[in-house]
């Protein structure tokens, strides 16, 4: 008699695969820990009020939000009043980018340079510096601004040796109209750690020279979504002006 897989009590390969699953995409998102599910469930049951309201359910909701804000600030070495909650990392990155566009034009207006924000001339548009391996939540909004002639962007290539964006390449890309350098802390595909602290230190030194010439400061942003929970993330150590973190990695 011929034996076939699945006979005589032997499980088929398909049965094995369907009964045992291994999730390995934690860089995309992670399953919730039981403690997280419990905390969220309790908050939805007991703190459902409007946190701006003065009655009990509203005050309870506000207390939970304030406690979360203080806890996050302590975790990243920041201040509670500097924490801004958004719907996620993509919104946070977009908020930084578009805020810098608005800030740039406000500074131009104060200087008396009246520029149409929707179709400014070349050289009067805000200039951004990023690298070629940034997450789409950085790359796509910057490309959209360029396509609509609302900004200029330099995409600095990464080293073929270590995968990092080189500090000297970033500094060499700075222009008088540069308003923001945005470099991720840890790459979501390669895991490479970018030299964000060194970038911030060098940009701050450059800002002193720019101030003497009447040029605005260049601010630094890092998307630390892939680093949080895997390594120490401290805004003071990083020296950044903006930090993006998420809770689902």
Automatic annotation (TrEMBL):
Limits of the Aminotransferase class V domain: 22-249
Localization per Swiss-Prot or TrEMBL: Cytoplasm, Cytosol
Enzyme nomenclature, EC number: 4.4.1.16
Keyword terms, alphabetized: Cytoplasm, Transferase
Top EC class, one word: lyase
Cofactor(s) essential for the protein: pyridoxal 5'-phosphate
InterPro entries: Aminotrans_V_dom (IPR000192), PyrdxlP-dep_Trfase (IPR015424), PyrdxlP-dep_Trfase_major (IPR015421), PyrdxlP-dep_Trfase_small (IPR015422)
GO molecular function, a single term: selenocysteine lyase activity
One Gene Ontology cellular component annotation held by this UniProt entry: cytosol
Pfam families from the UniProt entry: Aminotran_5
SUPFAM superfamilies: PLP-dependent transferases (SSF53383)
Function: Catalyzes the decomposition of L-selenocysteine to L-alanine and elemental selenium.
Assembly: Homodimer.
Name of the protein in its database record: Selenocysteine lyase
Species: Mus musculus
Gene from which the chain derives: Scly
């Amino acid at each position: 008699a011929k034996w076939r897989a699945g006979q005589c009590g032997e499980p088929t390969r398909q049965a094995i695969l369907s009964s045992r699953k291994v999730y390995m995409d934690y860089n995309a998102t992670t399953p919730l820990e039981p403690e997280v599910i419990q905390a969220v469930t309790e908050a939805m049951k007991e703190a459902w009020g409007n946190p701006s309201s003065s009655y009990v359910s509203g005050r309870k909701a506000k207390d939970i939000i304030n406690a979360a804000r203080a806890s996050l600030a302590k975790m990243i070495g920041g201040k509670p009043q500097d924490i801004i909650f958004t719907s996620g990392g993509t919104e946070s990155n977009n908020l930084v980018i578009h805020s810098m566009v608005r800030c740039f034009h406000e500074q131009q207006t104060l200087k008396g340079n009246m520029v149409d924000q929707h179709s400014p001339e070349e050289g009067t548009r805000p200039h951004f510096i990023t690298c070629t391996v940034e997450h789409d939540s950085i790359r796509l909004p910057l490309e959209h601004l360029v396509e609509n002639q609302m900004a200029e962007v330099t995409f600095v290539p990464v080293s073929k040796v270590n995968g990092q964006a080189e500090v000297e390449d970033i500094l060499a890309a700075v222009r008088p109209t540069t308003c923001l350098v945005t470099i991720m802390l840890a790459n979501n595909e390669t895991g490479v750690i970018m030299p964000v602290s060194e970038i911030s230190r060098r940009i701050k030194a450059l800002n002193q020279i720019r101030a003497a010439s009447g040029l605005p400061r260049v601010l630094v942003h890092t998307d630390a979504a892939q680093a949080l929970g895997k390594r120490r993330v401290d805004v003071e150590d990083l020296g950044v002006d903006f930090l993006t973190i998420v809770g689902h990695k």
